[in-house]
Amino acid sequence: MVYRGRFAPSPTGLLHAGSLVAALASWLDARAHDGTWLVRIEDVDRPRCITGADAQILAQLAACGLRPDAPVWHQSARNGAYAEALQRLIDAGWAYPCACTRQDIEAAWRARGMPRTRHQALPYPGTCRPEQGGLRGRPARAWRLHVGRIVAALDLPVPLHWHDRRLGAQAQDVACAVGDFVLKRADGLWAYQLAVVVDDGAQGVTDVVRGEDLADNTARQIVLQHALSLPTPRYLHTPLVLGPNGEKLSKQNGAQPLDVRDPLAALAAAATVLDLPPPRPTLQATLHSWIEAWGQRWRLPDSAPRRAADGGPARSLQSDP
User: Fold this and answer.
1) 79-91 and 192-202 helices cross at what angle (nearest 10)?
2) Please, are residues 304 and 171 in contact by the beta-carbon 8 Å criterion?
3) Do residues 208 and 7 lie in contact, with contact meaning Cβ atoms separated by under 8 Å?
4) Which residues belong to CATH 3.40.50.620 in the chain?
5) How far apart (Å, rounded) are the C-alpha atoms in residues 205 and 149?
């Protein structure tokens, strides 16, 4: 299998220390397997995107020596592909319109004696499923995936099992833990789950390396992959960088934009999280050494050892910026 990996930042702000960990890990995994590294700008949530942030993110990556091997994709240019995928699911009877607000969902669970606790995401109770009466004359707000129908039709195991290259064996009963999740939002924007699955399939992504905070999305994406007859990539979820409050460092909790005036220092901080060896004197030498270290730890069992005429890394690196 020819390796194809990707880094998919959202331009709601610039890269920070946490997002550089995921970028570096995905780049190293691609290089360690002589593969292709893609960058995809996940800008479907247009109201939250910052004008020009995509170009600045690419500049931050380039300053750190992380350059994509193919033209960058923008999800905002992919509306037709997402619409086609949704229509396929509708035609199969695996997607349905939903009229529920968040308040409706909370009210449904309170009526069952299960009020929401703080930070808890309630699974969708199935109020608008066709077999439960559908919209009942209410206007449609969103489109949802009918998880139960897909699991039954495709005979998927319950719970769904998969293997994470770092976290090990994983399992989730999607219908119980999440319920019928959204494919197209009430504001007309495409949901992350649909967009990422369609694009990973279209770009031939074989390996997803991303932050551990996204591990919980994996089962939903695997269900969608089965529903759309797309292959399931291998997954590796990286450790998180935590903020002063002990929560994941993010734009929402005040993460500062990555300072790439000294890219080696920025990368060294990310390397510490990934348990990589100390940096070398130059950026290029450092990246070479980390490719070898990553390959020794994370090379896939069906992957041949890296080869190069001079005994060094098989894929050359561009010169230090």
Assistant:
1) 100
2) no
3) no
4) 1-71+240-306, 78-238
5) 27
Specify whether the CB–CB gap between 122 and 105 falls below 8 A.
yes
Which amino acids are annotated as binding site, given as ranges? 6-10, 42, 98, 100, 124, 128, 192, 210, 251
Show the CA angle centred on residue 164, arms to residues 163 and 165, nearest 5°.
115
The 10 Å CB-count burial string (b at 16+, else e) for 257-271 is: ebebeebbebbeebb
Given a contact cutoff of 8 angstroms between Cβ atoms, the answer to whether 197 and 225 are in contact is: yes
Specify binding-site residues for ATP. 251
Question: Among candidates 214, 229, 121, which has minimal Cα distance to 164?
Answer: 214
Summarize pLDDT for 123-151 with one digit per residue, the tens. 999 999 999 999 999 999 999 999 999 99
Instruction: Specify the residue for token string 């229509």.
Output: 87
CA distance 33 to 305: 8
Cβ–Cβ < 8 Å for 61, 93: no
Q: Output phi, psi for 182, to 5 deg.
A: -80, 140
Considering the domain 78-238 in this protein, what is its CATH number?
A: 3.40.50.620
Residues making up the binding site for Zn(2+): 98, 100, 124, 128
| pTM confidence score | 0.91
Count CA atoms within 13 Å of residue 302 on its CB side. Answer: 4
Among 135, 134, 156, 136, which Cα is nearest to 147's?
Answer: 156
Please tell me the distance from the alpha carbon of residue 259 to that of residue 88, in angstroms, as a whole number. 44
Do 314 and 34 meet the contact criterion of CB atoms below 8 Å apart?
yes
pLDDT tens string 149-181: 999 999 999 999 999 999 999 999 999 999 999
β-pair partners for 248: 242
Q: Which segments are annotated as binding site for L-glutamate?
A: 6-10, 42, 192, 210
Instruction: List the end-to-end C-alpha distance of the chain, in Å, as a whole number.
Output: 32
Pick the CATH number of 1-71+240-306 from 3.20.20.100, 3.40.50.620, 3.30.365.10, 2.60.40.420: 3.40.50.620
